[in-house]
Specification:
22% helix; 12 helices; seven-stranded mixed beta sheet; alpha/beta; binds iron/sulfur cluster; Rossmann fold
């Protein structure tokens, strides 16, 4: 097992660490298949309101590759199809029926896996709604099946500081994880399995699958940060990655021939220690968050998730919900308060002297200002980028300069936006720049 040394990132302890206990929620009344957490997709609907669908039946496909299907996480009737801005598909909502009725595929055993061709495996995963779990760097688009990646990075730790604990998630999934890794070996010669050092202790037998550990600094376990610190040549820039819980789902799907419907998630808030939740894929946000105050912001990642409404459903890639409170109005004379409880990157507040976990809220404490060249964004970036220079190059349409400064190495962790005292949405500007460039090349 190798150690990857990443020293930059967010180190302040945050309040809201979930308890490692687990509770199981009963089936909700509706499930949703969101298209909002799938980057670059051009969704084409295959169903209409009132249609009855089985679990695993395709609901929409990607127009760019019709064989990549997105399937129903439950059995029932299409209750509504929700569109967002410019009629972009937001989500398909299924009203659940009592008994589960699955689309069935032939199961594949571990001993038979070696006899199944790569092409058959890929087609099965595409038909079964599982291929989308594999993402390709740098734009994190769906993996291109015609390409053999130099490496596939599997992250056992999720996207967020408080993503489900790998010890809790994989304790009962050793066989599926092993099967999944065998599937990946059919797709690439190099499989890198990473986990946070702090999670190693609870991993049990799964520990033997880990190839690399990363420090407990957010976002050291992000596959984009891992790739940046491992890659040695440009061919590795288009490697793939997959979250280990998706790898387990992929394995379960192939082993049973049925779409896997459950997932473990965390819901975090301030100083609460909520247990992990075993729920359905696509569960309604409202049923997961419990009590909340109206002015809370609900995000699917503390620094880089999307903002969701209580009526939305959890996306395929999302396994954590953060309830971030928004205080009423502005803090009077906030700039001269000692800030004993405030999280601080710049060590402006007295809180930097106290080790206890800090709460974050979503007030901006001031207006957006011009860049003051303070370099906080550079000092926190895990991939040694200078987000301020990339941002300025993008805003002046100097794409070549942005690329030279490493635009394509941005792993979208969101830390630069968080650290910027001028409130500049650096991560968003970089994301838009990367997306525009990627779209142009397609
Ligand atoms: S530029 Fe910002 S979002 Fe990108 S990796 Fe660096 S800190 Fe994260
Ligand atoms: S943190 Fe913000 S203000 Fe400071 S250099 Fe970066 S972009 Fe400029």
């Amino acid at each position: 097992m190798e150690k990857i040394k990443i020293s930059k990132g967010f180190t302040t302890p945050l309040a809201g660490m979930p308890d490692i206990g687990i509770i199981e929620l009963s089936d909700p009344r509706t499930l949703g298949l969101s298209a909002m957490d799938v980057p670059h997709i051009r969704a084409k609907l295959m169903v209409k309101e009132g249609d009855r669908v089985q679990t695993g039946a395709p609901l929409f496909y990607d127009k760019r590759d019709k064989s990549v299907q997105y399937v129903s996480p439950g059995t029932g009737v299409i209750q509504k199809i929700v569109y967002g801005e410019r009629r972009r598909l937001h989500e398909v909502v299924i009203s659940l029926e009592g008994a589960e009725d699955f689309v069935e595929f032939d199961p594949i055993s571990l001993s038979a896996l070696g006899e199944v061709s790569r092409q058959v495996l890929v087609e099965r995963l595409k038909q079964g709604g599982m291929w989308q779990a594999l993402r390709q760097f740098p734009a994190m688009d769906t993996a291109d099946a015609s390409h053999t990646p130099s490496m596939i990075i599997v992250s056992l730790s999720g996207n967020d500081p408080f993503s489900p604990d790998p010890g809790v998630v994989f304790e009962r999934e050793q066989t599926a994880l092993h099967f999944g890794l065998e599937v990946l070996k059919r797709l690439s010669d190099r499989i890198v399995v990473t986990v946070r050092e702090g999670s190693l202790e609870r991993l049990g037998k799964v520990k033997s699958s880990v190839t690399h550990t990363v420090p407990d600094i957010y976002p050291a376990w992000n596959p984009g940060a891992v790739l940046y610190h491992l890659k040695k040549d440009s061919a590795e820039n288009s490697s793939w990655c997959i979250a280990a819980d998706h790898l387990v789902m992929m394995a379960r799907f192939l082993m049973t021939g049925r779409y896997p419907t459950q997932k473990i998630i965390t819901v975090t808030r301030g100083r609460e220690h909520r247990p992990h939740i075993l729920t359905r894929q696509g569960a309604p946000v409202k049923a997961l968050i419990g009590d909340f105050i109206d002015r809370s912001l609900i995000t699917t990642g503390r620094f880089n998730g999307r903002i969701v409404e209580p009526d939305d459903h959890l996306g395929f890639f999302e396994n954590t919900l953060n309830l971030i409170d928004t205080p009423d109005g502005e803090e009077l004379l906030g700039f001269i308060r000692p800030g004993k409880a405030k999280a601080t990157v710049s060590k402006t507040f007295l809180s930097c002297l106290f080790p206890e976990p800090k709460e974050v809220d979503c007030t901006r404490h001031g207006e957006v200002r011009a860049c003051i060249n303070c370099s906080y964004c550079e000092k926190i970036c895990p991939n040694d980028l200078m987000p301020n220079f990339i941002m300025k190059a993008l805003l002046s349409d100097e794409i070549e300069n942005a690329l030279e400064c490493g635009l394509l190495d941005c792993c979208q962790c969101g830390l630069c936006s968080y650290a910027c005292p001028s409130k500049i949405e650096l991560a968003q500007i970089l994301r838009h720049g990367m997306d525009a460039l990627y779209k142009d090349k397609q």
